[in-house]
Design a protein that fits this description.
17 helices; mainly alpha; Amino acid/polyamine transporter I; about 0% strand
């Protein structure tokens, strides 16, 4: 007897909330606030020059090339196997690094809630618990975790709006922590500030993840573009509002890249602890689970798909027999992230969150670079393919739409990973060395499977 197909549970509202959960990253708001008032210029500039063209391209490719491969498939069809393998590796390796960066936040905030600093061993055990709870949660289909994604999205919006409204109240009643002169809103081009602009771009990436949910959608051809447009507008507004709240509360030179949002709530309310701050901290920690779970489905699906095509080692292609979830990639996430947090105490960095986050950021940005030339290639190579959503414009305009965000990605990578002055060597050299190591390891791992396939 033929088994009835599984009911598709994703409504448009679910898809939009999933976009917010995936793309809106609450913990990434604080590093951007380091830019001070000039951040508002960069938010608006990058919305126009990066978010808009990237969102349009993701909507077209995501509806024209549906499936679990996501941006790996787009690059494979447009630029070939070699670049597809690199994209799959960069896209996957960023995730356990990101997971490790979020894990190190946990003991810090739990210590704040408890009113004392946690011992090193306890901190490591908490970090490992966070990692493996995420791995366990990611063992189930995305449709079964939709309530987690929706809840995390609502909490993120609540936290961001709370910070924004408290910042507005503080500005009206007692003034702001940073001067709001016209000159302070002009863009800053110093090397320190430019290294944080990449975080804004990170905050705008992730729309393609929802294209890997297409099998769980009722009408992916309509829902994906609608969710990207609606979700993008909501996310941009929330980011700017929450950024204002943080800027109103904390002088830029005192902002913590890891706990800036909670620091803002403490300063805006005048409470270093207490029930309200503890509740906000717990909600913030819950959003970290939402971040990891929402992203894991897309990242793991891409890794499994690439492994099945011979572009990543076979372990990434292992699926759970009962529900067909990509367990190989999922458990590799846990293993790599666990190794990172275990060796973290041996590292000289004073800000482990920013160190791990920077390396994650570089690899993540790298994975998107080939998407834009692949988009142009596919327009010429596959013009007859049905495109439920299509970016309008002639050849010249399409090149601008594709190459401007690609160049911005490459520039951002340079500012994050390359020491451009003697003062930056101690901070950025480990990130540069980590990037080189990750790229070289990727060249080895993505070549070996292909050779084995040819030999077979």
């Amino acid at each position: 007897m033929t088994q009835a197909p599984m009911e598709k549970k994703f409504r448009l509202t679910d898809v939009i909330l999933s976009v917010i959960c995936v793309v809106f990253v609450a913990e990434a708001a604080a590093p951007v606030a380091v830019l001070g008032n000039s951040q508002f210029f960069w938010w608006i500039f990058l919305m126009i020059a990066f978010l808009l063209p990237y969102g349009l391209i993701a909507a077209e490719l995501g509806t024209a090339y549906e499936g679990e491969g996501g941006l790996y498939d787009w690059v494979r069809n447009g630029l070939g196997n070699r670049w597809a393998g690199r994209v799959a590796w960069y896209y996957w390796i960023n995730f356990p690094l990101w997971m490790a960066s979020l894990a190190v936040i946990f003991p810090e905030l739990l210590g704040m809630i408890l009113g004392r600093e946690l011992p090193l061993l306890a901190a490591i055990l908490i970090e490992l618990a966070f990692i493996w709870i995420v791995v366990l949660a990611c063992s189930f289909p995305v449709s079964e975790s939709v309530w987690i994604l929706n809840t995390a999205a609502v909490i993120k919006v609540f936290l961001a709006l709370t910070v924004g409204f408290l910042g507005l109240w503080a500005a009206v009643t007692r003034g702001v922590a940073n001067p709001m002169t016209p000159g302070s809103f002009l863009p800053s081009f110093d090397l320190y500030s430019l290294s944080f602009i990449s975080v804004i771009m990170f905050n705008f990436l992730g729309f393609e993840v929802i294209t890997t949910y297409s099998a769980s959608m009722k009408q992916p051809g309509k829902q994906i573009p609608q969710a990207i447009i609606a979700g993008g507008l909501v996310i941009a507004a929330i980011y700017i509002f929450s950024a204002f709240g943080i800027g109103a509360a904390i002088p830029t030179d005192e902002i913590s890249t890891s706990s800036g949002l909670i620091d803002s709530l403490q300063l805006l309310t005048g409470q270093e602890g207490g029930l309200f701050i503890s509740i906000m901290a717990i909600l913030f920690l819950l959003t970290l689970f939402g971040n990891m779970i929402s992203w894991s489905f897309g990242v793991n699906s891409v890794a499994r798909y690439a492994a099945k095509n011979g572009h990543l080692p076979g372990v990434f292609g292992i699926s759970e027999k009962r529900n067909q979830m990509p367990q190989g990639a999922n458990f590799m996430n846990g293993i790599v992230a666990s190794l990172v947090v275990i060796i973290a105490p041996l590292l000289p960095s004073e800000d482990l969150f920013w160190s791990f986050f920077s390396l994650n950021l570089v690899m993540f940005l790298f994975s998107y670079v080939p998407v834009f030339p692949a988009f142009l290639k596919l327009r010429k190579k596959d013009p007859q393919r049905p495109r439920p959503f299509m970016v309008k414009g002639g050849e010249g305009l399409l090149k601008v739409i594709a190459y401007v965000p690609m160049v911005l990605l490459l520039i951002s990578v340079v500012f994050v990973a390359v020491p451009l002055s003697g003062e930056e060597v101690s901070e950025k050299l480990p990130v540069l060395l980590g990037t080189i190591l990750a790229v070289l390891l990727g060249e080895v791992l993505t070549r070996r499977p292909r050779r084995k396939n040819r030999a077979g």
